[in-house]
Each structure stands twice: as C-alpha cells, then as structure tokens.
Amino acid sequence: MKIEDEIKQVAFRDDYQKAHVNLIFTANWLQQQQSGFFKQFGLTLPQFNILRILRGQHPKPATVNLLIERMLDKTSNASRIVDKLEAKELVTRCVCPSNRRAVDIRISDPGLELLGRLDAAMNDQQFGVQNLTSADAAQLSRLLDKIRD
Amino acid sequence: MKIEDEIKQVAFRDDYQKAHVNLIFTANWLQQQQSGFFKQFGLTLPQFNILRILRGQHPKPATVNLLIERMLDKTSNASRIVDKLEAKELVTRCVCPSNRRAVDIRISDPGLELLGRLDAAMNDQQFGVQNLTSADAAQLSRLLDKIRD
DNA sequence: GATAATTAAATGTATGTACATATATTTGTC
DNA sequence: GACAAATATATGTACATACATTTAATTATC
Predict the structure, then answer these.
(1) How far is residue A126's CA from residue A82's CA, in Å, rounded to a whole number?
(2) Is A11 helix (H, G, I), strand (E, B) or coil?
C-alpha cells in the first residue's frame, strides 16, 4: 500500500519528506511483524538479538560490553535484557575469573535449542523483503547506506 | 558507512537479509538523530507527532481516537502521551459537550508557538535524506511500499 | 603501597510500547 | 424505559529505551 494511504496524509512536501516518513513507518511495521513472530517463542526482539550474539560467541563467553557493541541499538540496556534471559534459563551469567568487574555471559543448551527452532521458523517467514527482487534489495541497501553517510 | 561495517558483521546470507537488517538499523539511526533534536525543545518524538496532528486540526479539537488513527505507530498509548503534553500546557483537554465519553484535545497557544520554532529549526536539519537525490528518494519510497504489500 | 582515575556492570527514574482490563457514556433492542 | 452491546477513554502490568548515577574492581600515578 502506498504510504499516503497508510497514514492518510494527502501529500508530502517533497520526495525527501515522503521517503523519510516511509522509512520510519516501514521499519516500525517490520518490527511489529517480527515481534509478533518472536512472541510465539516467548522472546522479544532485543532478547533474540542478544541470544544471537551469544550464539555467535559460543562456546566463548561474552561480556555486557561486547553485547552493547554488537547490538543494533547501542543505547539500550543490555544488562536488564540479560536479566530476563537468565530468568528464562536461556543464558548463564558468572563473574569473569580474570577480571572480576566483568561478567561472562554464555548461551545455555536450552537457549541454543530455542534459537535452532527459531532459525527453522524464520526461513518460512521473510517479513516482506521477499516482495523485492534481489536487485531491489541490493538497491535498497545502497540507498540506506547513503542516508547514513 | 556500509552496513557491514556499522554492525561489524562480516557477511549477510543474501541481499534480502542485508536489506532487512539495514532497514531496521537505519530507521533506528534516524529516530536517534531526531530524538536528540527534539530533546532540545523538551519534546519526545511521539509527543511531537501528536502536537503536529493537533495543529493540523486546529482550531477544531481532536479526540484520542483521531490521534490514534493518525499516529504512525497505531498501537502506542495516545492517552498517556497527551497527559505529558497537558502537564507542559502545550495542549488542553476537556470533555466533549456533544459526547461525554470523548475528550476534546486542542493545541494551546504555547504549543503552536513551540511547533513554529521547531519548523524553523527542522528546515536546517534534514537527517540524512538530503544525501539522496530526489530520484533516489522516490525510488526508496517505491521499494518500501513494495515491502509492505 | 596508598590514592586517584578509569572501567564494567548494575540500578534509578522518566518515558514509551504492547496488550489486557476497567470505567463511564451512549446506542440498540426488547 | 430497562438492559445488553458498543464506544471512548483511562488504567494496570510487563517490558524496553534513554540517560544519569552508583557500586565494585582494576589500573595508573605519586
């Protein structure tokens, strides 16, 4: 659906304003699609992202600092998201032996198992990007990179 | 900067996954740019959006329902955002005379004055979309509309 | 080696999001 | 006109975000 119809705004000042609003709107739409998906597995999107980083490190541990570096949203609160994952026993947390300020965070076996199920489900669920051609997708990334220059 | 460098991921599975991650990352980046901007004026992004809708209605009142319809994020809590704006005396709220279930919400004179200052400042602040050509911006909107089909 | 500065994580507070539920008013039906 | 259904908003709870502050451990400096 065209963005004008989605947000019931008759016209935009120019293509720049339209692209800007469309970007915010679409990313939001995507996040909602995704959070509905993750909810089936008892996770939120940020919790999933942290688990995925931990799997990337596995079997090495990660520290909170490393999680913050790798997270898409740098300013979010990794420490409290790990709290939630620990409560669900998807990760373990223990004081780092070589630096007792830091904590070693590891994905647990149930955590790995959950991510495995999520991977399988995600292959059947492409959240709209499948509507693009491969060339479209590449072009989209090029435009987005240009915006952040 | 290319998305691979931004999030320190070596490679994506395909252009689809890359575009997807890039979209989420870029929209987040844009929102952070904006929220820093609005903070100078004592507003948050959703508060600004509500004020802008109210100005569009002015001098007619808006109801909470109308705000929800027009907001980019449909599921957020308009009622509590209006609470914050009312506390700052940027809007007024009173029971609608013709339907006492509804509340009439109006932007106040200080609210209009604040939006006026924001408009001026926003013309000097284009948040990255100015890096695109006009044709790029139009193409971006076309791709985003396609994703949400 | 005591003390200051830095670093790593956790905590506090205000705001917003998502979703369920509650309260009050209006509308529809018998 | 009583009572059920629908409507408009507000409230409650859990989670996340944004940013400042605190606590504890380590490193640097004298």
Answers:
(1) 27
(2) coil
Could you give phi then psi for residue B105, rounded to 5 degrees? -115, 130
Select from B10, B129, B131, B149 the residue whose CB has the most chain A CBs within 10 Å, as the one to mutate to test that interface: B129
Query: What is the number of alpha carbons within 13 Å of residue B143 lying toward its C-beta?
Result: 28
Chain A touched by B6 (CB under 8 Å): yes
Q: Which residues touch strand D (CB under 7 A)?
A: A 44, 46-47, 73, 75-77, 80-81, 84, 99-101; B 31-32, 35-36, 39, 63-65, 77, 79-80, 82-83, 93, 96, 99, 101-103
Domain boundaries, chain A: 1-39, 42-147
pLDDT (0 to 100) of residue B149? 81
Who wins on pLDDT, B8 or B109? B109
Of B147, B142, B21, nearest to A128 (Cα)? B147
Length of chain B: 149
Is the domain spanning B42-147 CATH 1.10.10.10? The answer is yes
Q: Closest-CA residue in chain A for B29? A: A148
B107: which strand partners?
B91
Q: pTM for this one?
A: 0.83
Whole-number mean pLDDT of chain A?
A: 88
Q: Which pLDDT band holds residue A18 (cuts at 50, 70, 90)?
A: confident
Contacts of residue A3 in chain B, CB cutoff 8 Å? Answer: 141, 144-145
Q: Does residue A140 contact residue A22 with C-beta atoms inside 8 Å?
A: no
